[in-house]
Design brief:
Layout lengths: L5 H10 L6 H7 L6 H14 L3 E5 L2 E4 L6 E9 L5 E7 L2 E12 L13 E9 L2 E9 L4 H4 L1 E8 L2 E6 L7 E5 L10 E7 L9 E10 L5 H9 L8 H9 L8 E2 L6 E4 L8 E8 L2 E9 L10 H9 L3 E2 L4 E2 L4 H7 L7 E12 L4 E12 L2 E4 H8 L11 H22 L9 E5 L5 E6 L4 H23 L6 E3 L5 H13 L12 H10 L6 H11 L4 E3 L23 H13 L9 H5 L1 H31 L6 E10 L2 E6 L5 E5 L8 E4 L4 E4 L5 E3 L3 E10 L4 E6 L32 H10 L11
Parallel strand pairs: 5-7, 10-12, 13-20, 14-21
Antiparallel strand pairs: 1-2, 3-4, 3-6, 4-5, 6-7, 8-9, 8-11, 9-10, 11-12, 15-16, 16-19, 17-18, 19-20, 22-23, 24-25, 26-27, 26-32, 27-28, 29-30, 30-31, 32-33
Main location: cytoplasm
Protein name: Ribonuclease R
Catalytic activity: Exonucleolytic cleavage in the 3'- to 5'-direction to yield nucleoside 5'-phosphates
Length: about 750
């Protein structure tokens, strides 16, 4: 066994809790030379399987034990009125609750509140952790400001938070309302006040009206601080900039076409295929954004700051100004455009033989929607795609079918979960919720984009260029243990000794595709996956089952792709607008920033959709719906309504008069005594009891009875919850988890990551 191993590292951290950095651990264990590489891998494995939490760039702490000194975030006011928090790591808050116990020694400062962060000394007494503040950090604007609805009161007003996570309410004196009227959507900043007194605020901006149908997106944009307006210098550049002169190959004679959603606001990729004697040639052409957005310019700084475009049901907040995103850089039909293209050749079985990158000029010969392309292939006449059927579409489908053979051998993760789309009319009102149709046309474009992304990563890695990979690590041991625990409750075996591979997940999904638990298994498999991230280090893409992968195909809406374009330009000698040395040296920080902006956009998009769904259901209070339980917590049940895909919550206090115990491993609430249960995946009938469009929340009342006790199951004895605040059950560690922990102590854990 190599030194240092997991047990040695964990014992050292337990014995020396203040030695948290890699350097301190290495010094304490007297690690030298190649052993440092082993230590780095051990720490990474312990982080990936959830045993350690990253608390700084090169510092760790055990996830079940707060570090003696570290950053803490205050999350809630306990029932006894005390402020409670938890330690903060790279992935957010972790570890057990910590009670605020004032400032340390003679240190003084403002009283912290919910949402505040600070540096604290943490100690344990009688099984409970206490935090003594060393410093309260200055809050960022997005942490202190409040976005919500202004409500008039006799003495002025109040601002009610639009976030389900932020429970604050600001009282507003009359002079601080700044003209806000009842029902206005506003942002407000807190005013200094007494630590234990009411929170007062001042309105800083009126952003709209609650009765405006487009308020859902406005709230999400402001709540997540997504920049909307472009600075003047950025707009001036966008209106005047011309592409940099570079040697270009003429591709205008090739009938490249774009295939996009019918309501696409920009077009950054075009495709073409040609049958060869012994295979296929495919060209994927991408908008040459790098020719316009050059390093060090105002356009570049703003694009990097935004990170990506953000898409809402009624609008898009673009990464680039309209003049570029929808015009100069967009591959609009019948106009010449600069492009970065990759020409790929495949044999008859879909295996790639070669590829080459081209900086060229192209012309999109047609703009088709997915529906139009699919209709033509399906033999429907009279549509826009009909005249392109023989010269363009049939070769594209032929190449796609050949690639299907290689794809089947590669066996990427076959999760195909249904997506809902919010239909909005010109007035901004929700007219319906429909399930997005999934055509072969979608899959064709996805497959060609994947091939182009792989080619970009392979080329840059071959020439030794810095680049941003799109990394999706394997599921962590802890998530696989949770998956195994749950599958056992369905009498499905998932051996933890076998390596996590996509074909194992696919076999699980296929074996139960037609059973009653199909939807639940798909949901659980999805939750077991890591989240994808950007990184200058390559850990492969588990979901796609690829060893090299980088984002290349969407530079209009993702800054990561623009970096890959620049790396190709500089590495292949395609111009003077490639990746600079300064940017290459900053890729780790840029990657971290882009992950943050991507998650910010995802959260805002999700919130806006939740609010639109709530608005759509607001006049249906009292109606009954069929839903499926998608989450089980000590506080109650999360339920997804089948007709709309909207998510609602049924608190434990509203289920029945039973005393409910939360079984984490089984993902169920079980009634003490009777053993009746509400469990993950269970289909239930619910009544819509309350809708809060401001927060996008739905309160549901479960009408269906719980399922009966499972044969041979013992009645639960752990603490549970009924009316009032739900209790928490610690429960015993499952056999699967114990097995995983025991194995983890003898060998390296599986690589973790993000999906």
């Amino acid at each position: 066994m190599s030194f240092p191993d997991r047990e040695t590292v964990l014992k050292f951290i337990a014995d020396n809790p203040s030695a948290t950095t890699k350097q301190e651990i290495a010094r304490g264990l007297k690690v030298k030379g190649r052993e440092r590489q082993t230590l780095r891998q051990v720490l990474k494995d312990l982080e990936n399987d959830g045993t350690l939490e990253r608390t700084a760039k090169r510092a760790w702490a055990k996830t079940d034990t707060p570090p003696p000194t570290g950053v803490i975030v205050f999350e809630e006011i306990a029932s006894d009125g005390e402020l409670m928090g938890r330690s903060v790591g790279r992935e957010g808050a972790f570890g057990p609750p910590i009670r605020y116990a004032g400032y340390s020694g003679r240190t003084k400062g403002p009283a912290p509140g919910v949402g505040d962060k600070g540096l604290a000394r943490i100690n344990e007494a009688n099984g409970e952790y206490h935090a003594k503040l060393l410093k309260l950090f200055e809050k960022r604007d997005e942490e202190t400001s409040l976005t919500g609805r202004f409500e008039k009161t006799p003495r002025g007003g109040r601002v009610v938070s639009a976030s389900r996570k932020d429970k604050r309410t600001f009282l507003i004196d009359g002079t601080d309302a700044k003209g806000a009227e009842d029902g206005d959507l506003v942002t407000a900043m807190p005013k200094p006040g007494k630590p234990n007194g009411p929170a007062f605020g001042v309105v800083t901006e009126i952003i709209g009206r609650m009765d405006d149908p487009r308020a859902a997106s406005l709230l999400a944009i402001h709540g997540h601080d997504i920049p909307v307006e472009f600075p003047k210098d950025v707009l001036n550049e966008a209106q005047t900039i011309k592409p940099l002169d570079s040697p270009r190959e003429d591709l205008t004679h090739i009938p490249l076409i774009t295939i996009d959603p019918h309501d696409a606001r920009d077009h950054d990729d075009a495709v073409h295929a040609e049958k060869l004697k012994d295979g296929w040639k495919v060209i994927v052409a991408i908008a040459d954004v790098a020719a316009y957005v050059r390093p060090g310019t105002a356009l570049d700084r703003e694009a990097q700051k935004r990170g990506n475009s953000t898409y809402f049901p009624d609008r898009v907040v673009p990464m680039l100004p309209f003049e570029l995103s929808a015009d100069a850089c967009s591959l609009v039909d019948n106009e010449d455009r600069p492009c970065m293209a990759v020409e790929l050749t495949f044999d008859r079985s879909g295996s790639k033989r070669s590829h080459r990158f081209i900086r060229g000029t192209m012309r999109s010969h047609a703009k088709l929607s997915y529906e139009e392309a699919q209709a033509a292939i399906d033999g429907k006449t009279g549509g826009e795609g009909e005249k392109w059927l023989e010269p363009v579409l049939k070769p594209l489908w032929g190449a796609y079918e050949a690639l299907g053979e290689a794809r089947a051998l590669r066996a990427p993760l076959a999760l195909d979960l249904p997506e809902k789309r919010v239909e909005i009319n010109e007035d901004g009102k929700v007219t319906g919720i429909i399930e997005k149709e999934r055509f072969d046309a979608h899959k064709l474009i996805e497959e060609f984009m994947i091939q182009a992304n792989v080619a970009a990563a392979e080329t840059l890695e071959k020439v030794g260029s810095p680049l941003l990979y799109r990394v999706h690590d394997q599921p962590s041991d802890s998530k696989l243990a949770a998956l195994s625990d749950f599958l056992q409750t369905l009498d499905i075996k998932w051996p933890l000794g076998e390596r996590a591979q996509t074909h194992r997940f696919n076999r699980l999904l296929n074996d139960h595709a037609d059973g009653e638990h199909a939807g639940t298994i798909s949901e659980i498999v999805l939750r077991s996956q890591a989240q994808a991230v950007y990184s200058p280090e390559n850990n492969g893409h588990f979901g796609l089952n690829l060893t090299k992968y980088a984002h290349f195909t969407s530079p209009i809406r993702r800054y990561s792709d623009l970096i890959v374009h620049r790396a190709l330009i500089s590495s292949l000698g395609m111009g003077e607008d490639g990746l600079t040395k300064e940017m290459a040296a900053s890729l780790e920080d840029i990657a971290s920033h882009l992950v943050d902006t991507e998650r910010r956009s995802m959260a805002a998009e999700r919130e806006a959709t939740d609010r639109y769904l709530a608005l759509y259901l607001a006049d249906k209070v009292g109606a009954e719906f069929e839903g499926r339980i998608t989450g089980v917590t000590p506080a109650g049940l999360f339920i997804r309504l089948g007709s709309t895909g909207a998510d609602g919550f049924s608190p434990i206090s509203k289920l029945s008069d039973d005393y409910w115990v939360h079984d984490d491993g089984a993902m169920a609430l079980i009634a003490r005594g009777s053993g009746k249960r509400f469990e993950m995946g269970q289909v239930v009938t619910v009544e819509l009891a309350e809708v809060t469009p401001l927060q996008g929340g739905l309160l549901l009342k479960v009408l269906s009875p719980p399922r009966p006790r499972k044969p041979g199951e013992k009645p639960p004895s752990s603490r549970g919850g009924r009316s009032g605040p739900p209790g928490r059950s610690r429960g015993k560690m499952s056999k699967a988890r114990k097995k995983t922990r025991q194995k983890a102590s003898h060998k390296k854990g599986a690589k973790g990551g993000k999906s």
